[in-house]
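S.,

Sequence below, as promised.
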Amino acid sequence: MSLNDLQGWLIAEGLREDLDQLTRHTVVAELDNLVPPAEDEAASFDWPRLLLAGSILARSDQRAYQDAALRIATAAITLSASEAIKDSGAVLLGKLSNFRAVALATERGLLTADVEGRLGMALRIEAQRRQMGQSILVQSSGRWIQVNDFQQRFWSQADNYQWLSASAPTASGKTFLVLQWLIDQIRSSEMRLAVYLAPTRALVAEIEANLVSLLGARSGIEVSSLPIREKHDKAQEGVPRAIFVLTQERMHLLANAIGGAFKVDLLVVDEAHKIGDNQRGVILQDAIERASRSNPTLKLVFISPATQNPQELLADAPEGAHTASFESDVPTVLQNLIVAEQVPRKPKLWKLSARQHASMLPLGVVQLGSSPGSLKKKLAFIAAAAGERGGTLVYANGAADSEDIADLISQLIPEVPSDPELLELADLARKGVHQRYRLAPLVERGVAFHYGNMPSLVRSEVERLFRSGKIRFLVCTSTLIEGVNLSCRTIVLRGPRKGIGHPMEAHDFWNLAGRAGRWGDEFQGNIICIDPQNAQAWPDGVPERARFPIKRESDAVIEQGDSLADYLDRRATTDLADFEDPNQFEQVASYLLATFLREGSIAQSGLAKRHNPATIERLEASLSNIAMQIAIGPDIAARHPGVSALGMQRLLDAFRNYKGDVENLLPAAVDSQDSYDRFVTIMRRINQYLFPAFTPDKIIPLHALIVVQWLKGFSLSRMIERNIDYHRRTGRSFKLPVLIRSTMEMVEQIARFRAPKYLSAYVDVLNMHLVAIGREDLIDGDVDIGTQLEFGVSSRTLLSLIELGLSRVSAVALYEKIARDDLNKEDCISWVRERDAQFEGMDIPAIILREIRAKLLPEGNAGAATLTS
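The prediction came back faster than expected:
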């Protein structure tokens, strides 16, 4: 019998019943308030036989076999009372290169320290050889790090290829190792500037904080999430070298600020599969291509979770570039998929079963305190019962649902003693958002919710306190699919959706499920799926584990045949108001038109080789016809990804035909009395000529109001109060929780996404017109309006505070105490240092005060932390 045959027999027959028993006992130990079946007996296992089988299975690279070996090793450590069996389980974990699980077991007292010292000489030599073989040397620090198979493959290949695409499941330690490698590259090579692209601001903030922590003080390497030219230029001189952590939109802002001198030495694209996302996927693709054009020797690394074709991302590599891709499907933690079904005729009793391959293993019954009469109550009641010990995430299909479910959970759990950190977060929620923001009373009870539009400081504090265990239940939305590295013990879902009404696809489901049992924090994680037989909740059933294909958004749209070419033809002759859904094609059409203007054709571009020649020929004809109508040039088109050059040309024509005073076309300074009226007019002009970005027309005044307040540096709480006043003044009815959420959403979607995208294009085209008519004197050379809107700043002082590392919440709170609006970074530090002793009387939330001192007075932060705790 070959090794493969033996491994297959062990899984299919030899260990079938044993693995079922192991699964049942290890999963039951993870759940609370579970009454096992009456026939369930105490655990009794033939450990020597199981451990031998586990060592045979560990030699395979197939996920199912490695998963079984990991189950045996974990069970030996957590279920057995014998130190010898526990030690053998640790040895098996070593064979699986899972050294972090061994460290976790030692940390939790499940293993006695110095396992190797208790092994026989032969086993000790083998263990040391394995550890040496599964370690990497960080050249810049001389430090060795123990790694798993995926991490070792990444480290060994990343140096040898110009373009590398690597894929592995969530919880495999991708981010940790990539950051270590990135730092090592900057420290030990000739590279001067690296960019780490992340899909969301939440992930940008997390990666930036991790890099700062890993680098430590006085590293000589600048870490920044701000697209500031000064930092880029200093990095190009080598003093200091820099790592920018940016979204794709911020990278375009940086490239726009720098112009032709823009150059990146190393680009890391995290969550690279997002190149297929609707709307923003094209912006990401454009950012990658822009960096590659600026430096043909650019080193580029793509990281994606559990994809089946990571090599697809290498298709656009420069000719002659040395490329490689690899994927890993090796498990690092156990992930238990559990289904919850109501016991017939007994709504308070819910039967839990674990999915083991094609069968279901009964685990027992959970009794709820009350009958769950709604979908929200099902999620809340089951989460509160089965995940009572904490570390429990609940997935909600929207921000409003997350607040309601968190409120229900808070009513089901016992009160906890007052905790200073929870009280501080509640205070920040009340002062930073609104006195009646629903988060405040919930966090005082150890429950919270989490969604993308929340202020970053509030959201990061929620994440920190959940990781620490002080927040025991966290109700989240799809933000966690976007790569935020937040782990849990248990996650509870029912009919998860991504977007309005769209059932979550298998890859997103397993990306989310990967938060359960984060490697190094837990041995296993539980994914509880409620009502698995309900076709409305789960149209395709509870998803099987699967890797998914990467496909660029541009490719997906082009593959629709003549639809895109038809859209381009209509776009050249038809008013945008006559289109039912211009968003469907506008982004890709804009990308192709910019490419055509730059290259003179798309036939020789990288995408042409991936598509039917007839399709490319038809697109080429449509683009050629449009290009003849355009005079704005390729440079402006390249500066505004996703904004049509045809729309910009029509806007330019409108400027040329304008009969009034040209100064009326300009935005007014935000502190000017006519600023609001100007923005209303400009938004309507953008809708008419550029793209209908601010719709419907009747709420343009509200959009303009939000943009003006955001630029003025208003705090979110002040904007919410102004929005309340606006609704009262105009006689509009409102519900406070809805209005709070809608204000947050308008800040994110209007002030920080659509406004910078389209207002930047508006100003660029206007400046082109001003140059043509000899009115350069009207061009404002200060900070780009896109950057101002991205960060919500218009004054030098506020921008300096954000440059120093403060979140906008903290920067605005401090700015409200500062009289001058022209302070540079050094001036801000001096101001804070002079008034540090006065802060306690300024009614600034303790969390904000702690961040101010940490960022602006790092040398005195230890003492300051004591003062504010």
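The radius of gyration is 28 Å.

Coffee later?
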